[in-house]
Design goal:
six-stranded mixed sheet; five-stranded parallel sheet; single chain
């Protein structure tokens, strides 16, 4: 860190730690000061960080710290399409896919999306024959984003039945086969390099399945989603069915690109465009709003406080909406692959912690599984609650009322604590309270809202990285194990005694 960063950080660590109850008692306007609303046309999202330990003084110190970390300049570089991934010498231009970024990149992205739109609409109109099912094979960001959006947005109506397969375990692929009719099934192969072994192995197995089930030209059913079109052509994909995206779009930031093809195929282009527009609204807010009023930056301030000052090793995300059941999985990759680093941008070691472990689940299921630890365990775990005011079902309104009351009650209980015994003295029934949470309350969970939610977490991740002086856009940590697996396949393995014994036990050596 520079001297200015060191000084700003030291100032942050000297603040007292009043309880949440004390903070609310001291400021009747606390909720208004720590809540913000993002408007999305006819709907919007409320971001309430009042049940965290952020104070006006702490926020001021964090604003100074962000300035000392050169946050405004790094944000400018991000949207200007300049290099923000120094280890690979790349920009990170996922926002350009939403129409916010360097003009030439926005124009290029729009042209590529128009190409995808034409193919999506051709399929919906029957120009390629009857297409009822799509098996989308990818892994990491090429699968998690599409899986999340398809699951969240196509429950009421799916124009094409989409099955996202990422696991190399054949059981996953067989489940997709069982749900699809080969006569009306197409395949999307999503791989930035078109060399990912899990994806290409699964793709070949889908072609074999189509061939074995009477499809005359399985290769003619393939749509390639890649940043390397030449590799896709070499693999046998027709050039007219290759949907490229820019090299400057990282995998975990790619659902806005042609990687989002299965989303558009399932929900239609109008809703896919709404997904982009919702994300763009968050982009503009993040780009143009400074300090504590910037909802993603404010969330990152809280992340830095709990992880680096209070020593919290995890952060939990609980979605009180069945349609967001895959969001915690998506955020795990986004946050932990981006910021799970141990060196600064200049290669020097990081002192202290970087990214917390992101985990979570769906309420109210999680209340009966893991909330015991949150309320009475010895770990301090900041919690994000995410909910929608409008229900996603047409059943008795009691369902949604109970869902929301449980969501809000959990946040209140974590903060307040108490003792549930008759005399108020039984330690087994005591709740310490003073446990932080934030609430993201959506008017409704539509495509624009989901887009804004995802973009919010992208920018929150970026802001955290800037304040830790790390690069959130590379991911070399995933490579070593993959290399060793290839060594085993090639018969070049030379491992420790335990691994050698496991290989022999499994019949692999």
């Amino acid at each position: 860190m520079t001297e200015a960063r060191d000084e700003a950080w030291r100032a942050l660590t000297l603040h007292p730690d009043p309880t949440l109850e004390e903070l609310f008692a001291a400021d009747a306007e606390r909720v208004d000061k720590l809540s913000s609303r993002l408007e999305l046309g006819e709907s919007g999202i409320l971001f309430d960080w009042s049940k965290t330990h952020l104070t006006a003084e702490l926020l001021g110190e964090f604003e100074s710290f962000a300035e000392a970390c050169d946050f405004p300049e790094m944000r400018r570089k991000l949207f200007a399409g300049e290099v923000v991934n120094p280890t690979e010498g790349r920009a990170a231009e996922h926002s350009a896919l939403r129409g916010v970024g360097k003009e030439s990149s926005v124009e290029e992205a729009a042209a590529l999306l128009e190409r995808m739109k034409l193919l999506v609409e051709a399929i919906h109109e029957g120009a390629l024959g009857e297409v009822k099912h799509l098996i989308h094979v990818g892994i990491g960001g090429s699968a998690l984003g599409p899986a999340l959006a398809v699951d969240a947005l196509s429950r009421d109506l799916s124009l094409v039945d989409v099955h996202v397969v990422s696991n190399i375990d054949g059981v996953a692929l067989e489940a997709a086969f069982a749900a699809c009719d080969p006569a009306t099934t197409w395949i999307a192969v999503a791989s930035k390099t078109f060399t990912t072994i899990e994806t290409m192995t699964n793709a070949q197995s889908v072609l074999t399945w189509l061939d074995q089930n009477g499809v005359a030209d399985p290769s003619g059913r393939v749509i390639a989603l890649t940043a390397d079109p030449e590799k896709a052509v070499e693999w046998g994909v027709d050039e007219t069915r290759i949907l490229p995206f820019a090299e400057s779009v990282g995998g975990r930031y790619s659902l806005w690109s042609s990687i989002g093809f299965p989303i558009a195929l399932a929900i239609g282009w109008e809703d896919f465009q709404a997904l982009l527009d919702g994300a763009a609204a968050m982009d503009v807010h993040f780009r143009d709003t400074d300090g504590r009023d910037n909802v993603a930056l404010r969330a990152a301030f809280a992340d830095q406080y709990y992880t680096r000052i209070r020593g919290c090793q995890t952060r939990a995300v609980f979605c009180y909406d069945e349609r967001l059941g895959l969001l915690p999985d998506y955020l795990q990759q986004l946050e932990m692959e981006s910021n799970g680093k141990s060196v600064h941008v200049d290669g020097t070691p990081v002192e202290g912690t970087t990214a917390p472990i992101t985990w979570g689940g769906v309420g109210t299921d999680a209340q009966h599984a893991v909330f015991q630890l949150l309320h009475q365990g010895t770990n301090l775990v900041p919690v994000d609650f995410i909910a929608s005011i409008a229900p996603g079902d047409v059943l008795d309104p009691a369902h949604h009322r109970i869902l929301l009351t449980n969501c809000f009650a959990q946040g209140a209980a974590l903060m307040a604590g108490g003792n549930m015994s008759a005399d108020g003295k039984d330690p087994a029934r005591a709740f310490p309270g003073d446990r932080p949470s934030a609430t993201i309350l959506c008017d409704d969970l539509d495509a624009a809202t989901l887009g804004a939610l995802i973009a919010f977490h992208e920018h929150r991740t970026f802001a955290n990285a800037v304040m830790m002086d790390i690069n959130p856009f590379d991911q070399f940590g995933v490579e070593l194990g993959k290399k060793m697996a290839k060594d085993i396949e090639g018969g070049e393995a030379d491992f420790d005694a335990s691994t050698e014994a496991l290989l022999k036990a499994a019949g692999l050596a």
